[in-house]
Amino acid sequence: MIDEYPNKFTVKELIDILNKFPHDMRVVTHGQRNGYENILHPGIITVYRNEESMSEYEGEYNTTEIFGQKPVEVVAIFRGNR
User: Pick from 43, 50, 60, 80: most CB atoms within 10 A?
Assistant: First the structure.
């Protein structure tokens, strides 16, 4: 099969990158309501659990400090932009 979209992550590449992080780290993703996109290079970010705003349109975690919440380091996989 010929890949019509070169320079995108393969499973092997993603596994190799993720293997560089501690294996017990939580993984989060940044997404939208519908559809799928290619991913960008994963990286470590600090998040806070967003317990007050848990709708399906808002993520469970937020990068803005939330009073009383412990910061958590996670591996984030962001979606690409077109």
Answer: 50
